[in-house]
Please model this.
Amino acid sequence: MNNDIIRVLPDSVANQIAAGEVIQRPASVVKELVENSIDAGATKVDIILKDAGRTLVQVVDNGCGMSALDARMAFERHATSKITAANDLLQLHTMGFRGEALASIAAIAQVDLRTMRRGDTVGTRVQINGSTLESQEPEACSEGSNLMVKNLFFNVPARRKFLKKDSVELSNIMHEFERLALVNNNVELSITHNGTILHQLLPGPVKKRICELFGKSLERQLIPVETETSIVRISGFVSLPENARRRGALQFFTVNGRNMRHPYFHKAVMSCYEELIPGDMQPNYFLNLDVDPETIDVNIHPQKHEIKFENEQAIWQIMVAAIRESLGRFNAVPSIDFDSTDVPDIPVFNPDATRRPEITIDPTFNPFNTGFEDSAAAMPEGDSVRPSRLNTAAYTRPETENWESLYESFSRNRNESLEEAAAITTDNDAADPGSIGLQSTEDTGGITSPMQLKGKYILSPAKMGLMVVDQHRAHVNVLYNRYLGLAETGSLTMQRIMFPEIINLSASQSSILESMGDDLTALGFEISFLGDTAWAINGIPSEAAGTDPALLVTSLIESIDEETTDFRSHVAERIALALARQSAVKQGQNLTISEMDSILSALFQLPSPNYTPDGKLVLTIIPIEDITKLFA
Model:
């Protein structure tokens, strides 16, 4: 009886297992094939797609080509022309070196390769079906290689089932194409999907390639970064602080012409923008590092995105110094910010004045009568924020001089509203009413009015301490719930724009917007395609009147999660969140006491007042014990 259970897997099975690490989606095929073309010395590479790569991924190049034997050997595992010994890993100048990509692709697709070396008169054609060689024969073809990958994952139905819809897969391919195009700006590149040319890029400087990929507006937003030391040479561009983005920031690192992701160096860039941009904003950057190949290790991850550096800390310091120098040279660093909040106007002395101006005093004028009491009653229900300045002439001043009773009435109504809000949050387990609700003026020492700090935060006394509320996030939370109800009931109506707003998107953004067309129309948008990647915004939801239409649409596109399988099930939430972000009060906007009261009252009536829809903290409580310790 044979009890041996360990055996060597067949090559076809081993290749399918390896394919799971190297080839995850059609974008992975595009990356591997284009990098092979670049390594072959190609100066022109054409990418042809059908059905976002499911049906066909074809890469045609004018590289060195292959002989008949090399064309067959290229599909064997660990067969490569890039290295011959382990020491070669220390001097890598090519994108590929593992010898796994073509074998992995051939294991899960139908491959058709035509290739001919420069100077030969006849080439060769190789056809492989799921790691099985079907035929190899001479073929008349052009110099270089023409490789077609058909029916990806045809023999792995579970993997094919988990592919996303075409718009998502095409977006991933376009992101991969953008990374490849940036790092190979000396190569002519084109990409075509279902017969439509998405990009056709000629060789040129890096900045020109950036503008061709992401829009000409970036040309005025980027400042150069350049420094060279014995350890590293850093070159590229970073964006001005005022052009930072909340979502969808363009952030690219390359080292020795290879794309990489490096969280440590990303933090270095972000540290240069501290105090320059809000915490939820991200700058654009396109940075290339040239280092000695012996000081890095690219053999970390099968997809070669992660790279280890020998001198990480030194490169961090050099990068921070270079970026800060560029920001300072282009006046991107702000001057000293003196706090001008509530500073009285200082009159200018006029030496020519001969006499004091006559002052007339109206004995019936009451400086405390601003009309807010009447305006509050006149405002329509549901308005969460009232105008900061009201036309008091439009309202009748109350004929009363009992100001103490009037203030007591105002305080009582506010406390009752907060007590009711606390009861609501208790029922929904969203917050601790004891830490948020104001039970009585005795708990807060008789202080009930909120105050604003630096135009960003609302401070309000609470039962257990001091409540600090982010005014922008709080208003986003309030408006989101309001807009979501309108979106779900179909109550969002369209308001036409007098002069249509023209926006130019990247190819990946354009494909996403096209897939969202019907949903946006149903929710009050009117957007038309002008050709290439240009779109015209003719109408937006009436609730978003006064916002920037271009910024509203682009922020909506950027909010699309690539991992979401069913966009339509979440379109109402995304529309509501995008509208709320654009319509909410901004950081730095001064609010009146009535406006702050209105935001707080509306916030505490929500089911989840503590967090925004995207999970960001809205409010926090500083316990009275912590405040007491500060004075111990």
About this structure: The mean pLDDT is 76. The CA atoms of residues 282 and 347 lie 41 Å apart. The radius of gyration is 32 Å.
